[in-house]
């Protein structure tokens, strides 16, 4: 499958890279199909709309930056995503001009079911997490502080 992207132009993706988001993503509810594109170094991924070339989100595994990150996935979301075995959790990264000021959104993780190719961004209610946790500490290394501190 070929999709158009603003970053890479026309890009060939495999069917197993495409996830269906039945309710879209908050603020982009009409966009229900996204490709998960891994970058070469494997640490970051893009969540690219298969229809809107300008719509893409940079994702990362939150546990790489906040090993103590935890939340309980509500049963309704578990059921909606048909999760019974595998689940991937990713969070949206906001890159800043000064990379050391980049942030990760721990309040609204993207939940992916790789078996069923279903996805959903959920908002964690009653959570101490925020939308802008530092991606790196002041020394320029990965953040190792506990989220919410």
From TrEMBL:
Record carries keyword Cytoplasm: yes
Name the Gene3D superfamilies for this protein.
Answer: BH3618-like
Pfam families, per this entry? FliW (PF02623)
Q: Where in the cell is it found?
A: Cytoplasm
Sorted keywords for this record are: Bacterial flagellum biogenesis, Cell projection, Chaperone, Cilium, Cytoplasm, Flagellum, Translation regulation
Q: Is Chaperone one of the keywords?
A: yes
Highest taxon of the source? Bacteria
Q: Which family does it belong to?
A: Belongs to the FliW family.
What is the stated purpose of this protein?
Acts as an anti-CsrA protein, binds CsrA and prevents it from repressing translation of its target genes, one of which is flagellin. Binds to flagellin and participates in the assembly of the flagellum.
What interactions and quaternary structure are annotated?
Answer: Interacts with translational regulator CsrA and flagellin(s).
Protein's UniProt name: Flagellar assembly factor FliW
Q: Write down the species.
A: Paenibacillus dokdonensis
Name the gene for this chain. fliW
């Amino acid at each position: 499958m070929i999709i158009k992207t603003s970053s890479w132009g026309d890009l060939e993706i495999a069917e197993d890279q495409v996830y269906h988001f039945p309710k879209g993503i908050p603020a982009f509810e009409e966009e229900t199909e996204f490709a998960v594109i891994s970058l070469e170094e494997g640490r970051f991924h893009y969540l690219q709309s298969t229809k809107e070339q300008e719509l893409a989100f940079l994702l990362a595994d939150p546990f790489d930056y906040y090993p103590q990150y935890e939340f309980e996935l509500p049963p309704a979301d578990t059921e909606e995503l048909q999760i019974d075995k595998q689940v991937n959790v990713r969070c949206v990264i906001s890159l800043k001009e000064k990379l050391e000021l980049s942030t990760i959104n721990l309040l609204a993780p993207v939940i992916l079911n790789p078996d069923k190719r279903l996805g959903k961004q959920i908002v964690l209610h009653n959570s101490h997490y925020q939308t802008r946790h530092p991606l790196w500490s002041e020394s320029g290394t990965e953040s190792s502080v506990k989220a919410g501190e």
